[in-house]
Design brief:
By secondary structure, the chain is an all-alpha fold. It has helices at about 1-30, 35-40, 45-55, 65-85, 85-90, 95-160, 170-190, 200-205, 210, 215-220, 225-240, 245-250, 265-270, 275-295. The chain has 14 helices and no strands. Helix 7 (about 170-190) runs antiparallel to helix 14 (about 275-295).
Length: about 300
């Protein structure tokens, strides 16, 4: 921060020096007087420039001090001229010189304020850009954390979905509960009051006949049940996968999804408070795992 302040002060000094040199050169030319004589006449202006940096360092630039001080040194010059004690000053037109010094001092104020304002807005823009960059960085980090959490949750779901001889019966009966939960959600989301109908719900629901027999099969699973079980699981998987289609593909029209053309399972998740997407994902994963397990297991 100190380096920033020093850089700004150095620029102010360079600008002030240029303004003063341009001012006395201009006055020397238009009044056709020697530069040394003009230098003496413009001393009030020089004194104000020097005092300005004292005002600036004390943080009083935006106060009335900045507008009162330009009057002080020309007034002192006019008093000295009026006493006729200094020969070189007494040969000048005191009133005119004093007024010129006041005008140059206020013009200097205007130029310096414009410079400081430009610098201020430049720093403000940098600050806003830095703040925005920090905001996006924090947002990206937050999103990364969310992605990591979702990835861990997905890994956990996949781990839970793995099928083996110890959990085979539990997994099979678990699909029944998840399919029922999905069908309940379809009933709520595509209710008559929401624009659904009995025919629409029938087209979207998973057939009860496909999962109602799981409990009976798992109670006494035999080798001759395997082909039958594979057939049921394959049909069930097909019906679960159908929920990833669009409304117009299954129903021939759009019912709830008027604009975005979302998948049916997404529409269910958006329009219901129950975790239907979780039930659907687990049911599909388990169903796929059961099919692979049954095909590879020897009974």
């Amino acid at each position: 921060m100190q380096k920033e302040v020093d850089h700004l002060t150095r620029n102010l000094m360079v600008l002030s020096s240029l303004l003063y040199l341009i001012s006395i050169s201009f006055m020397s030319i238009i009044t056709e007087t020697e530069l040394s004589f003009t230098f003496i006449g413009m001393l009030p202006f020089l004194m104000y420039i020097i005092s300005f940096f004292a005002i600036y360092n004390k943080g009083l630039v935006k106060t009335s001090t900045t507008w009162i001080t330009p009057l002080v040194f020309p007034l002192m010059f006019y008093i000295v001229w009026n006493t006729q004690t200094i020969d070189v000053v007494s040969r000048m037109e005191g009133g005119v010189v004093a007024v010129l010094n006041i005008l140059f001092s206020y013009a200097y104020n205007g130029i310096i304020f414009l410079f400081l304002r430009k610098h201020h807005y430049g720093e403000l823009r940098k600050s806003r850009l830095a703040h925005k960059a920090m905001h996006y960085k924090q947002k990206a980090e937050a999103n990364q954390n969310i992605i990591e959490e979702l990835r861990n949750e997905l890994d956990h779901v996949k781990e839970q979905s793995k099928v083996n001889s110890d959990n085979f019966s539990v997994k099979l009966r678990g699909i029944e509960d998840k399919c029922k939960a999905i069908n309940f959600t379809i009933g709520r989301v595509y209710s008559d009051k929401r624009g659904g109908s009995k025919d629409i719900r029938a087209k979207l629901r998973i057939q009860k006949e496909l999962y109602n027999q799981f409990s009976q099969i798992t109670a006494d699973i035999k080798k001759h049940h395997i082909d039958y079980l594979l057939d049921i699981l394959s049909k069930l998987y097909t019906e679960l996968t159908a929920l990833e289609l669009k409304e117009r593909q299954v129903l021939g029209q759009r019912v709830l999804d008027k604009y975005k053309d979302e998948q049916i399972i997404t529409i269910l998740a958006i329009n219901d408070n129950e975790p239907v997407l979780e039930s659907y994902t687990e049911a599909k994963e388990v169903c796929e795992g059961l099919i692979k397990f049954v095909k590879g297991e020897n009974y």
